[in-house]
Amino acid sequence: FYLLIIRYIMIILMKRILKKLYNFFVTCFYNLVFPFVLQLVNSNVFRTKKYTISLCAIFKDEAPFLKEWIEFHKIVGVEHFYLYNNDSSDDFREVIQPYIELGIVTIIEWPYPQAQMKAYKHFYENFRDETSWVSFLDIDEFFCPKYADTLEEWLESYKKYPVVLIYWMMFGTSGKLQHDYDSLVIEQYNISWDYLYHVGKCLINTNYDIVSFDNAAVHHSPWVKVTLGPINFKIPPVNQFGYFVPKDLFWGPTKELEKSTIQINHYWSKAWNIYDNKRKKSDVFFKENPKKKLDYFYFHERENRTSNRMIYRFLMKLKLSLNEID
Fold it and tell me: Where are the beta strands (DSSP E) in 42-194?
């Protein structure tokens, strides 16, 4: 009996070790081969379009947060926003109408349940020729370059890659039971994890075809197709540290944040009252909302161990753009 247990444990351990070794060698192979492949790809994929960088987002009842999100990303160089309304019941139209009239926002009505990936596919089929780069970003996510003033400036070192993965810096409630709607999100939530999450979002060169829109991978780490003569390659994203990551692996200094030049501030929960309200609603992606489980909330909240105000370098410009200073 004990020998059977030991044998069973050994089999499980061996499977895990072999899986890690396989992922390691696959990642090594990709990082050796794909830089060479990309050097040989026709340079026509870098042709100029109407916009340099745009954001595509699907939202539901996010009216209080849309203006700050749009104004902030305008500051860091986003030129256009493709927004998919997923049956919102609030006054979002009042918020974004001025941006629609200025030609900054394109609004698409998208009243379908759990159709987030289909929205991204719709964007790619209808709007990809308008923008050189796009990110499928959520309204609670903010690009935060650490040293560059704009995303375009930061992208200079990554233009040869089809897809660039940027990792989340997770922010929690900062101990707030009630959200202050008179204060900015990026100002009132500044307690974060002390490391980058292994998940993030991508900037995608729209001249490349995305392999598939059939699963959640396109939301976080889409692969693209590259043709070199008669050979077709499927290439994964390169992360912000310059490594191809085929298996959602975090290759780079996970703890050494000083080596990171950018982060995505993910205001995952905001105050408890906002998070609690989201727990009671349907989700744009999940059929069964994972936020219903308190353990899911506490897992994320307990990781908040440090103060992170990197995004404050853009705070004054944001306040001025929002007319918060007389």
Answer: 51-59, 80-85, 105-109, 131-136, 141-145, 163-171, 191-193
The residues, ordered by sequence, that sit 6+ positions from 276 with a Cβ below 8 Å of its Cβ are none
* Residue closest to 23 by CA, chosen among 249, 253, 251: 249
Instruction: Compute CA 281 distance to the chain's CA centroid, rounded to the nearest angstrom.
Output: 22
31 versus 94: which is more confidently predicted? 94
Of the pLDDT bands very low, low, confident and very high (cuts 50, 70, 90), residue 46 is low
d(CA 131, CA 50) in angstroms, rounded, equals 6
Instruction: Find out whether 148 and 142 touch, Cβ atoms under 8 Å.
Output: no
pLDDT for 245 equals: 84
Residue type at position 109: E
Q: Is 175 exposed, middle or buried (0-12, 13-18, 19+ CB in 10 A)?
A: exposed
Residue 43, pLDDT above cutoff 70? no
DSSP H helical ranges for the chain: 2-40, 63-75, 92-101, 116-126, 151-155, 185-188, 217-220, 272-279, 294-301, 315-321
Q: Is-contact 81 106, C-beta < 8 A?
A: yes
Give the 3-state secondary structure of residue 96: helix
Phi, psi (5° rounding) for residue 196? -75, 140
Q: What is the Cβ-side half-sphere exposure of residue 216, based on CA atoms within 13 angstroms? A: 7
Token pair, residue 306, equals: 């440090």
Round to whole Å and give the CA distance between 81 and 99. 9
Separate counts of helices (H) and strands (E) for the chain = 10, 14
Q: Which amino acid is at 244?
A: F
Q: Is 315 exposed, middle or buried (0-12, 13-18, 19+ CB in 10 A)?
A: middle
- How many C-alpha atoms does 227 have within 13 Å on its Cβ side? 8
pLDDT at 253: 47
pLDDT at 93: 95
